Amino acid sequence: MKHLVIISFLLIYKLGFTQNVQVDSQSYTAQQLIEDILIGSNCISNVVVTNVSGGNFNGTDQSYGYFDASGTSFPFQSGVVLSTGKLSNVPGPNTTLSDDDANNWNGDNDLENILNENNTTNATIIEFEFTSIASQISFRYLFASEEYQENNANTCQYSDLFGFLIRNVNDVQCDNIALIPNTQTPVKVTTVHPEIPNGCAAQNEAYFGSWNNTSAPINFNGQTTVLTATANTVPNETYHVKLVIADEQNYRYDSAVFLEAGSFILNTDLGEHRLIATNNPLCKNETITFDASASNGNSYKWFKDNIALINETNSTYTATETGTYNVEIDLGNNCTSYGEITIEYIENPIVSNTTLIACDENQDGLTTYNLFDAEQTITNSDNTLQITNFYRIPSDAENQLNEISNPSTFENTIPQQIVYARVENQSQCFSIAEITLDISINNMAIAPFETCDDNTPDGFTLFNLDDLRNRIEPNVPVNSVITFYKTTDDLFSETNALPDAYENVDAYTETIWVKIENGIDCYAVASVDLVVLESPQFSSIKNIGYCLNSYPETITIDSGLLNASNNNPTYQWYLNNSIIPENSSSININETGTYTVTVTFNNGCSESNTIEVVPSNVATIENIDILQASENSTITINVSGEGIYEFAIDNSIFQDSNTFSNVSAGIHTVFVNDLNGCGMVQQQISVLGFPKYFTPNGDGINDFWKPYGVTSEFYSDIDIKIFNRYGKLIKQIKPSQSGWNGTLQGQPLPNDDYWYRVVLKDGSKYTGHFSLKR
């Protein structure tokens, strides 16, 4: 590199001390950029640039070149930069959008394949080969992009792509070493950013550098921190490197990757950095040994925070405190390999020993504990700490051996047993806390909890256990948690807690268990009997009729109580929700309305029964409709009154309907009965009909022909005339007469058909014929 010293000095003088990064696309060839600017070791040899491509801007600009950041706030003093736009748009201030394109500027298949992406464009590429005598190389870089858009959800979705692809020249497969430290995740805008409000959560925020304001030294909206790309190599073998960056999908919103000058060096891996930010710091009192022996050096020099560690010349070094440690390894032939690691320490968790008090049914000191109940006390309510396991002895807790397998249902083996909790923070640093297992000595006697039976007298009812809780609370510490269980097994395993609305499963008397907890401690365990008390039960009579036609006579209504025996009931009566001065099991009343009786037993259980006294009365027959027919007629009995009525005709069974069908001709009696017992009324009716024949032979049976239903009381004004077949009037019958005897002027007429014509008072006419049979 000596032949470039004067040129570099003149260039620096030319660029001056400016607040913005300066770039140069003309002074260095690609070979010089790699061999003389990027590579900082004489022990990396055979450096040959094999391919360069980028944007074609008609010879006036390139998409790669040298940058100088001297005198600016940019993290690198100088180096090589590759961009997806014009090199001239890289320098600050950040006041314009770098958004360049060029003719026939294609993407890169290798980059797409290794990142599993597609449709790249505007790829800038420098490929070179080198040989190293060391087993590892590294270089430092920084990624910047216009795709970084502060408080904009686009940051969550879009990113240009870049990669550092390395492979042994004898291999086909390459590796990308532009990765987020300790991961296989490529560095992109979408994988390294802070939280984006209303967009997405932070991703690897520790490696995000800054949002860039308008005074930034580079013309990009955001950038990462300084990152290190590292690759393991086989000494003295040749490797191929492809540095590539490309736009994704389209040319918009350019990006750039900056490679620090002289940072491509031989490297010795001392292990990953142990940092709080990456959640892997060292724990208090922990030591770490750095091993540089893999480099097979002739000599070693160790440094802490850039200060040489006196007499530390071995290939290993054991660190005990925070700092950045470096090693310089002399490999011979004026070749030096460098190793660096930063370690940080974090305090072990602050924990508190505690005593866990559980309930013990038989007070022998042996019971069941949920060890996790002690977590908040042990961790001092620090939700960044976690109990990883519990152990019976401290050494097991330290070495994570023989953990307690059932910490939520742990049964101690000796009274006052001590168990140990291993508590870790997010960096897996741990402390050990002691838990002393003690028992509560509070014995509580809880009086039976009584509830009246429901309407089904079977000894099962719904208990409101919250009422029982309220009864217990005055006798226990404030804010105690009271929980009910069916069995002691459920209680000690804290499973199957009973709901506040609980229906007993054992008739009349059932024992349940109560657990009272004061904070994490069990204050007491007790049993309580749930007792179902007998409640008043009533008969099903709900409606009674009062006969208005019997007023002011009284009737007796009864409470309907079925289980008065041994319960010493008291009674209170109400009429239409107003109290009345009655307190016996039955009362005499002559007023209709809603009567309610509340019955209270000597056990305090009360129930009410309601009896509706409805008005009733004997029926009034308003009229009877008769639908005459030649043989069978239909009648309808129309009544009025307050009662509920049933109906009958002659000797038939009473029915609810007031209509009767198929009623024969003749005289009938209808009956209307009040179902509430207020009385029955009756009335005769006549259904008109006409005999088909008669037999006037003097045997006293059917000797006269006369319409059915016609009497001196019914149809008294009816006109009945009989004719022979020739239309001659034979007989005119009066309603009061027995009928026609089959003679004319005292002489019997022969067997034959004869005709009748019947005219009612209203003008209705009935005609027909009948037979005379002797």
UniProtKB/TrEMBL annotation:
Pfam families on file: CHU_C
Transmembrane segments: none
Domain of life: Bacteria
Protein name: T9SS type B sorting domain-containing protein
Lineage: Bacteria, Pseudomonadati, Bacteroidota, Flavobacteriia, Flavobacteriales
